[in-house]
Automatic annotation (TrEMBL):
This is N(4)-(Beta-N-acetylglucosaminyl)-L-asparaginase. GO terms for molecular function: hydrolase activity, acting on carbon-nitrogen (but not peptide) bonds, in linear amides. Substrate binds at R177, V178, G179, D180, T200, G201, L202, G203. InterPro entries: Ntn_hydrolases_N (IPR029055), Peptidase_T2 (IPR000246). The record marks D148, T149 as: Cleavage.
Length: 316
């Protein structure tokens, strides 16, 4: 049995290729990194990789992580600039016993020494978004409300599981700000004997609940991925609202070692993509919260057309 699940509709094309790779018995390690790289390379996705929106200083700082569910090996980078595929750098770091999580100039030095591709990740399109934001606010620029981290969990035919994340983080974030995406247990976690989870949303709030690890822990107790996602997300959402009066965006996807999947969210129309050996053609789903549960339905062709049109529209 193989399967792969990813956050956001921007992962659709990646999962079409990934499903073919998994059907051909490619490894989960190769498949998940290649799939995330495809999202990183696409210039119109303004929250990941090339074309990602910059920080307050108009610099694109990228975060990424990779985890092997067999060995529990982890690699991560944060605040890295001018490298094309941070997820591949993260995977490389996972192969060492120590120095698995590097940030800023240290991550860049390592990437350069290992021969990873340098690239100016700030596009003209992203510059236009930045200038627009400066022109439309009368006060110090605030972080953009959207935070569309790409997160994927993969299961191959050899029963190995992996996961990977990549993001440019909040638009107009403070220089050096890091969210949940590269943090083990918050933005991602996977154990081949149990399953994996990945989160997207407001990292500062996701980190308060170690959301991805909590979902895997609940699956260890015998809960399905869907039940685990619902319990973890709505418990954290309740805690945050009770103690602080508000909760940021919390969305998760999960996959277990038998190919079952789940998703939960506290926002409207959270999109994600799934492909499995049983249903190999990737499907985009929309998730919506309802009474401590998540209602999941396939996205309509009209919704998908609008989604992709908005992300590739011309800026003036």
């Amino acid at each position: 049995m193989w399967g792969i699940i990813a956050t956001w509709s921007m992962s659709l094309e990646s999962l079409k290729n990934a499903s073919q790779s998994l059907e051909a018995s490619d490894s989960a390690a190769k498949t998940v990194v290649t799939a995330v790289q495809k999202v990183e390379d696409y210039p119109f996705y303004k929250s990941v990789g090339y074309g990602g929106l910059p920080n307050e200083n108009q610099e694109v700082e990228l975060d990424a992580a990779y985890m092997d569910g067999d060995s529990l090996a982890i690699g991560a980078v944060a605040g890295i600039k001018d490298f094309a595929n941070p997820v591949a750098i993260a995977q490389s770091l996972s192969q060492s016993k120590v120095n698995n999580f590097l940030v800023g100039s240290g991550a860049e030095k390592y990437a350069s020494q290992q021969g990873f591709k340098r690239k100016n990740m700030l596009t003209e399109r992203a510059k236009k978004f930045y200038q627009r934001r400066l022109q439309t606010t009368s006060q110090t620029a605030k972080p953009y409300a959207g935070h569309d981290t790409v997160g994927m969990i993969c299961l191959d035919q050899q029963a190995t599981m992996t996961c990977a994340t990549s993001t440019s983080g909040l638009f107009m974030k403070k220089a050096g700000r890091v969210g949940d995406s590269p943090l083990s247990g918050s933005g991602f976690y996977v154990d081949s004997q149990i399953g994996g989870a990945s989160a997207t949303g407001l990292g500062e709030d996701i980190m308060k609940g170690c959301l991805s690890y909590e979902i895997v822990r609940l699956m260890t107790e015998g809960k399905t991925p869907q039940a685990a996602c619902d319990q973890a997300v709505f418990k954290l959402d309740h805690q945050l609202r009770q103690r602080r009066g508000t909760a940021g965006d919390l969305s998760v996807v999960a996959l277990n070692s038998t190919g079952q999947w789940g998703c939960a969210t506290n926002i409207a129309d959270f999109s994600f993509v799934v492909a499995t050996q049983i249903a190999p053609e990737p499907v985009v789903y929309l998730a919506n919260p309802s009474n401590q549960q998540t209602i999941i339905k396939p996205a309509s062709a009209k919704w998908l057309e609008k989604y992709f049109a908005e992300r590739s529209s011309t800026l003036t």
